[in-house]
Sequence to fold (533 residues):
Amino acid sequence: MLKGLPAGIDAGSLVLVESQKTPQFIALMIALGLRELTPLVVPARLGGEVRAKIIARAAATHAVTLMADGELNWTSTGQEEKHPEGDNPALCLTTSGSTGVPKVVRLTAMGIGSFFDWAQSYFGIQAGVRTISIAPLNFDLSLLEVWAALDAGAEVILADPERSIEQGYLASLCEAAAPEIVQAIPLFHDRLCSGLSPSSCFRPRHLIVTGEASAQELRADMAAQFPEALFHNVYGSTETNDSFILSTNGEAFAGPAKIGIGTPIGTTTFRIYEEPESPGTGELLTATPFAASGYSDVEQTQKAFAPEFENGRLVTYFRTGDRVRTLADGSLDLIGRADFVVKLRGVRTNLLDVEDVICLQASVLEAVTVPFHDLGAAQQQLLAVIVTDPDAVVNTLQMRAHCALHLPQSALPSRYVLTHEPLPKTSTGKVSRSELKRKYTPKPESNA
Amino acid sequence: MTIKETIKEYICGELVGDDVVPSEIEDGYDLIRNGVIDSLALVRLVAWTAETFAVPINDVEIAPEDLSSVERIEAFISRHSPSPA
Fold:
């Protein structure tokens, strides 16, 4: 498939590909891997500005498009190759980019291989087994349902992501193809379940729910539809792949009003940044053998991935941003997002992503955002405290215009403080957001 | 002080930040697209036009575009104020 590569492309080059749910696209991915090129898989029909940002962030040197006639169309992006030291990703995926700037996650061959070993063993994926892939191939779900399956010699049924929402589509496909393993977000499990008749002969072995918590009503429907199946609630992220799992029979799956995320997968370890007032509850950090080496952006990596020496070996913990509670049996319950994910104007917003966007402005040295409740405003507002280069000339008006250009309206800070002073730090060296809030939150007489 | 100058002074003092001077804001500068006015700021701005120019805000129809630049805010005030300053 890749007989002639364009000039300037070598082993280790990062190649952007737009996800297509076809066997030809899967063949292209495999061919790229065989030529030791790293695919950066992005959603199909990505907006020009976001696509350009991803290419620049990842330093993807080329893009390749699979044309309708099966030919490949290579283009050079003009980017220079840039590899963080000692880091050679086998695959790059992007985060969801809820604020419009997805992060590029670098997955290593070792991490992916470890995940394959676990997934193939845990779900009995081997030659002769059939899985179904419902999500687009730029989603991390593809590592289990497509790549671990193909690696084991299993068969993969490719559902059309754009049709999966249609009533009856998934049910017809599953009844015809009879996959034994079905992984999906709750929405598609609901579509599948509601499209099957109670007497359907479709009997999968494993039903894996991922992405978000499933409602008890859906779990009850699934348990009733598939009485002999094993049910799994899987927790993870693009950065760590799956890290927790709760596996159970239908009765225990359908029973509780809320279902936990279970226990760590394989050799995954975790810790909780406990909140002083509620022991056992706090932000979850995970260290998994499946984890990415980081983001393409070193600063983003340093913010989210924390290497630590633990019992004489280096362990890298990933800050999930999720709040969990330890249950009596030691398993975990997911409560919600930790402090830096907040609801602004009704939309969940990752403050770290907003800060990243502010830092794209050339004069910015450091930026921290703090949510606050303005007097007289019912909704939570966002304060941005920005350290700018003393040699640069930039004011609040320009900073607002920069943010308005790069952030969705819901994520825009309503108050900006520009300073040359270093930001206040806590005893552990982190920026003291509470101090910033105290210092810069609007007073009753000022609404600036 | 002209209406435009009064508006710019209010925007700098209450909405943008005190590091911006009124003369930096051009009359046609899009305040909504450039992140100066959000929904909350819009409510405050409307209330301010009522206080300062006696615009009968309960009786007039207000579209965000009417307040998207200094010149549009001026036109809005002139259209609805009983006695423009």
About this structure: The interface with chain B takes residues 345, 374, 377, 379, 381, 395-397, 400-401, 403-404, 409, 412, 414-418, 447-448 of chain A (CB under 8 Å). Chain A has a mean pLDDT of 88.
